[in-house]
Amino acid sequence: MWKPNQPGTPQTPEPQRPSTPPVASFDNSPLAPARPAAPSVSAASNAPASGEQATIGKSLIVKGELSGSESLYIDGKVEGAINLPGNRVTVGRNGQVAANIMAREIVVLGKVRGNCHASDRVDIRSEGSLTGDVIAARISIEDGAFFKGGIDIRKPGAGDAKPAATPAAAEKPEPVAVSS
Q: Per the database entry, which stretches of residues form a coiled coil (predicted)?
């Protein structure tokens, strides 16, 4: 008989909040206690090569710019800018983000006010809310999700390349002198 949550069974696609506390310490003083590194739970993980994910908990409020090279799970409040290219940003059910987000993948389960620029995809889950413009290669909006903004689908690797002729130039042809 199949039982969920058994070793070797496939996991659900919904991102889960890490069950272990984050290993990173922001206190670099010599009196700070050293924490041992957490052992790796699974070698076949969908996380980036580093296998690390930072977490902003429910009671945390961050104002300013966040940047780095690991995935981020937000369950608290963030105001400012989030720049994590090549990584995943997940806004949890309790997360409230008022920031422009740039990442490889953005998953919205909470509330986001700001523009989202993903090199791969943006997922707005059924309980999620996104108010802002989206630039991504793929987008998924589940039934029940809230979205207000514009969508710009760009092919992977296209970057911010502009077309050769801008719409304004195409609408206004140059005058041509005609001789009789």
A: none
What average pLDDT does the chain have?
76
Phi, psi of 150 (to 5 degrees): -105, 155
Any bridge partners for residue 127, and if so which? none
Residue 43, classified by CB atoms within 10 Å of its CB into exposed (0-12), middle (13-18) or buried (19+), is: exposed
Per-residue pLDDT tens for 124-149?
Answer: 999 999 999 999 999 999 999 999 99
Q: List the one residue out of 28, 13, 12, 39 whose CA is nearest residue 107.
A: 13
Cα–Cα distance, 57 to 95 (Å, whole number): 9
| 154-166 tens-digit pLDDT | 987 665 544 444 4
State how far the Cα of 116 lies from the Cα of 61, in Å rounded to an integer: 20
The token duo for 174 is 């140059």
Q: For the chain, where are the E strands, in sequence order?
A: 53-56, 61-67, 71-74, 77-91, 96-108, 111-113, 116-124, 129-131, 134-136, 138-141, 146-148, 151-153
Residue with tokens 């290669």: 137
Looking at the chain, how many residues does it have?
180
Q: Where are the domains of the chain?
A: 53-157
